[in-house]
Design a protein that fits this description.
The complex is a heterodimer of chains A (about 160) and B (about 550). Chain A is mainly α and about 160 residues long. Chain A has 7 helices and no strands. In chain A, α1 packs antiparallel against α4 and α5 packs antiparallel against α6. The C terminus of chain B is likely disordered. Classes of the chains: A mainly alpha (about 160), B alpha/beta (about 550). Chains A and B meet through α1, α2, α4 and α7 of A and α1 and α2 of B.
Chain lengths: ~160, ~550
């Protein structure tokens, strides 16, 4: 049983670190590229929430949207890779991926733009979103990450 | 407390991963930015800024509109006056598609210091619509029965001419001779000889003459000029420009108004110097389909593409033109071709060379058009060092065998598949384009330009420039010289198609090289064939 538990934890750690890796890289690339903007992605939004997304592209809002997006990406990236406050990171990740998914949902009848595969209802954004739920349900920072030190070492010190 | 190596590995194992990903992301972004700025630095291309136009001060310019059809309405809107019918139509269009900003754009358009004082249209419905829409209590708009009445009235300072092609020159000449300012639609003239007469009239007149090639205001074209002048493309040997349309509107089959009749239309005046034919609604509303009134693809659409390039390259009139084509897609009684290929030769022209002196010289301008297919073929300028796609957006790709960029290509700083320069002033604007024909014009940069990411009607800018020159002096960007180049080049294309032979230009004498036994103007005016029937001339 405990061996199975360990295998499961190791797998989830791998999943967590890779998702973190993906998010962090996206965040860093955007942060170091001053010309990057989510304008195009939002302006071409479609589906039931199209109006909501196109509302975000005003001159006064787009700067905030871009900054918040980078911060959110990095929160997920840092918490997942370091293995600390990963449940907060997972919630942020689910929120972010839900927005990405809804801006360009793979619903029948909508033109799929800039996608490399074929999707019907479920796409990679949605799968990554579910993976974030798994991370939320199975925190592994204590197994591999800063939480291990926080829980085991710092606590012992307090005692 | 004691931390073992195992503790550190488990607790801090994420840190090196974090560091590595961060480093890779930063290096990736900064690296590609550096590579790009190195290329841009080398190219030194400066996106053009909108020209500063001196204000139109003093008394408002009193304007008379001659011809209030499709284009006449558009020009009047550019002057700041839209009919209620159009506003209602656009309001509904915006309701249906929130991205349709035509009405919003119109309402935001800067007000010009003009006063509409008169209209001249041979169709009662249009003249009445003009008066009903724009007449106010303190400004009663007059309808003039003929353009001469309007020009001689002493009540108009300037006329806007948006009539059939064969009326462009007679009206412009009459206005210029009476020092009334002229804004005339393209093509500037309908025959070769009147092109010279109009040039004389414009040169002698104190009035300001402008041809309606509004794209001269498009910022991407002035940026394109900078790109070419800096030798970015090297020697351009071939230009390909195209018309692709596949709809009724694009094939000039416009709607026929239900109230059109010999009672509501002054048919005699419509015909003017054209062959006397009985009243014909098809001819009246779809006049672009006959040589008698229009000039087909060569006068109607080639002129746009030619002047777009003449504005970027200033290549002037071609040494020779050969054209071929036919009526292949709309065999509906028209006599202008609906498929045409025009090759214009410029053997002495060069945009500069990066190779041995004397190796490169000369260019072909190739215009290819069909009204039976809507596939978008962009305008491309093909140089030894790079290729440029020209429209409202500009894209420049290096050529794999370029001399100028050989080093950068060799050490991987450039790639033939990756653009080295892109100019997209509209990247932050959302557009909704209503019809296939307007999409055609918009893609070519013929409808709008973008100033600080905001869409601006280039026709508005073009008319504002004309009005500013009227008040403040200076030069219009498409005046008689540019109009002359455009008209002669278009006539050469029409003549070549009709005669099935090469038409040559003698730059020294500024004349077409004569062909024995051929009267060029007769050929241009003739409808069925160039061997004109005397009874058709009337």
């Amino acid at each position: 049983m405990s061996q199975n538990q360990n295998k499961l934890k190791a797998s989830v750690v791998l999943l967590r670190v890779f998702i973190g890796w993906h998010f962090l890289f996206e965040g860093v690339v955007k942060m170091y590229n001053p010309e990057w903007t989510s304008f195009g992605y939002l302006a071409t939004a479609q589906g039931p929430f199209e109006g909501l997304f196109t509302m975000l592209i005003g001159d006064s809002t787009i700067g905030w949207v871009d900054t918040l997006n980078i911060i959110a990406l990095m929160i997920v990236g840092v918490t997942f890779i370091l293995g600390i406050f990963e449940r907060i990171g997972a919630i942020v990740g689910v929120g972010l991926l839900a927005l990405y998914f809804l801006a360009h949902p793979p619903f029948p009848g909508l033109a799929q733009m800039n996608v490399e595969g074929n999707y019907w209802l479920v796409n990679k954004n949605l799968i990554e979103l579910v993976a974030c739920i798994v991370i939320y349900q199975l925190p592994t920072g204590e197994y591999f990450g800063l939480d291990y030190l926080r829980k085991n070492k710092l606590k012992t010190q307090e005692q | 407390m004691k931390w073992t190596r195992r503790d550190l590995l488990i607790g801090l194992g994420g840190l090196p991963i974090l560091g590595a990903v961060w480093w890779a992301g930063a290096a990736n972004a900064v690296g590609s930015r550096k590579k790009r700025s190195e290329i841009l630095e080398q190219l030194n291309i400066k996106p053009s800024l909108p020209p500063a136009v001196p204000g139109i001060g003093g008394d408002p310019v009193r304007i008379g509109v001659i011809g209030f059809g499709i284009r006449g309405e558009q020009l009047t809107r550019a002057l700041g006056f839209a009919t209620e019918e159009w506003k209602e139509e656009m309001r509904l269009a915006a309701e249906e598609d929130p991205n349709n900003k035509s009405l919003e754009d119109f309402e935001k358009q800067e007000r010009l210091n003009v006063k509409l004082v008169g209209v001249c249209d041979v169709f009662d419905v249009r003249a009445e619509k003009f008066i009903k829409s724009f007449s106010t209590d303190d400004n009663k708009i007059k309808r003039y029965r003929t353009y001469k009445d309007m020009i001689h009235s002493g009540e108009v300072d300037a006329v806007v001419i948006a009539t059939l092609d064969h009326w462009h020159a007679p009206m412009s000449i009459e206005a210029l001779n009476n020092n009334v300012h002229v804004y005339v639609e393209k093509p500037m003239t309908h025959t070769v000889s009147e092109t010279y007469t109009l040039r004389d009239a414009a040169e002698k007149s104190d009035a300001v003459f402008a041809v309606g090639h509004q794209h001269r205001q498009t910022l991407s074209f002035s940026t394109a000029r900078d790109i070419v002048e800096k030798g970015t493309l090297g020697h351009v040997s071939l230009i390909q420009t195209n018309t692709n349309r596949n709809d009724d509107n694009g094939a000039w089959n416009y709607d026929i108004h239900e109230k059109a009749s010999p009672e509501t239309i002054d048919w005699e005046q419509f015909l003017g110097s054209a062959p006397k034919v009985p009243f014909n609604k098809n001819h009246f509303f779809r006049w672009r389909k006959w040589w008698a009134y229009g000039s087909g693809l060569s006068g109607d659409l080639l002129t746009h593409d030619y002047d777009r390039l003449n504005c970027v390259l200033n290549m002037g009139i071609p040494a020779s033109v050969s054209a071929s084509g036919g009526i292949y897609t709309h065999n509906d009684g028209r006599n202008v071709p609906d498929v045409i290929q025009v090759n214009m030769e410029f053997p002495d022209f060069s945009t500069g060379s990066s190779q041995t002196k004397g190796k490169e010289k000369g260019m072909t301008f190739c215009y290819s058009a069909t009204l039976g297919n809507g596939f978008n073929r962009p305008t491309i300028l093909m140089g030894h060092d790079a290729t440029m796609e020209l429209g409202n957006r500009l894209t420049v790709w290096p050529d794999g065998a370029s001399t100028r960029y050989a080093d950068m290509l060799e050490n991987g700083k450039m790639d033939p598949n990756v653009p080295i320069y892109q100019y997209d002033p509209a990247s932050r604007a959302t557009d909704a384009v209503s019809s296939a024909t307007s999409q055609y014009f918009a893609d070519k940069g013929l409808m709008w330009t973008y100033i600080d990411g905001v869409r601006v009607d280039s026709t508005f800018l073009h008319m504002r420039e004309w009005l500013s020159v009227i008040k403040n002096g200076g030069n219009v960007s498409c005046g008689i010289k540019e109009g002359f180049d455009e008209a002669i080049s278009a006539h050469m294309a029409g003549l070549s198609w009709k005669l099935g032979r090469k038409i040559e230009w003698d730059a020294a004498s500024q004349r077409l090289k004569p062909i024995e036994g051929v009267d060029f103007d007769q050929v241009l005016l003739a409808n069925e064939n160039w061997n004109i029937q005397p009874e058709m001339v009337g």
